[in-house]
Design goal:
The protein has 391 residues and is an alpha+beta fold. It has three domains: 174 residues, Heat Shock Protein 90; 102 residues, Ribosomal Protein S5, domain 2 (2-Layer Sandwich); 84 residues, no CATH class. It contains ten helices and 17 strands. The strands form three sheets. The chain has an eight-stranded mixed sheet with strand order 5-4-3-6-2-1-7-8. It has a five-stranded mixed sheet with strand order 9-10-13-11-12. Helix 1 packs antiparallel against helix 3. The N and C termini lie far apart (54 Å).
Length: 391
Amino acid sequence: MNRPASLPGARRSRGTEQAIAALIDNAIDARGRNGVTVRVTLDFAARSLAVEDDGLGMDPESLRGAVAAMRPPGGAPPAPGMPGLGMVGACSVLGRRFSVLTSTAESQVEHGVAHDGEAWLSGGCRPQDAFEATSAAKGRPWHGTRIHVSCPNVSLYRQQAGALLAKFGSRYARHLASGSARILVNGRPCVPAEPKLEGGRRPVHIELQDGKKITGWLGVMAEKSRLSCGLALYKGNRIVRISDGFGIRGHPSMSRVTGELHLDHVPTNPQKTRFFASSPEYAEAQQAFGASPVVRSALLDITRSSKETLGPLVKYVTTGNRDGKFRPNVGMSDARNIMAEASAFEFRHAGSPVRFDFVFGDGAGLYEIRKDGPGHLIEVDRNSHVFSAVR
């Protein structure tokens, strides 16, 4: 019998953060009326980790469905849409041995399964025995799901707890701020990341064909942030991905754009870990969002805020000193910001309108000035040798 080289999911490139996030997503999906508390514990000495929640929990049938998604050695892949692949897959990424204990509030019994991936792969147990199921009376009232992982496949290090606090504070800011979820990492609570926005949150409501719509909000951060930037793309109440350029891919201003979009009509894979980018629904949503007035307004505001950066260059090309080189007061930082953020805008010089634009020319000169209606057009060539140091 051919056996896989590793557990399903272990070959994936998802790291510790993504796998733990998948388990947190499951907990949030199974939250009760009063929300859910999720506790993530990284035990560096024991080389293990745990994710526990006080959500609705699972009954025996739901638990069997969850572990049934596990692919037996040499067997066929699980059918699309089979429940539990997210939980089992995430556990398999995190470690070679894991156990799940769960119970509902109404039940007097707690149900568990344990999996030893090393024994399974070495042929020490039959496929049907890959999971050892248990049931026992509750020692005290509780409900939720408790997952413990050992023999880790991922790195565990002491600075990790702080990094996860920051990243989960950004990823789950919406749930944390509303109180629908509370997340603790090694006993420390995650705080919702709330970057300072210029102009506050800008509502997004885009009507599509057949009554479908895109809702959410968009914001322009006062400062660039690699942690908070990007658009959180939701399906239902679950984050499918955090995109760095949905609808405005490749635009340099994305480092200051943040927000969340709900794409409930766009198809995803069964585990809700990615949208089908090739689907017509995804293409329509992406195009409609990129062309929407709220996006254009946000990008225009970012351009306007970069005018201070462009001030020395504007002064340079309008004072008659046109030898094709920067003056000393246009330094590396200014040049880098011009390359990264600037786009077309207009201003007035000596009472006449001047349009300032950036093009990818032949690199022969820094800029070109020509008559443009009642005013002038200044085109700065991004391919100029002046920018070579910051490309």
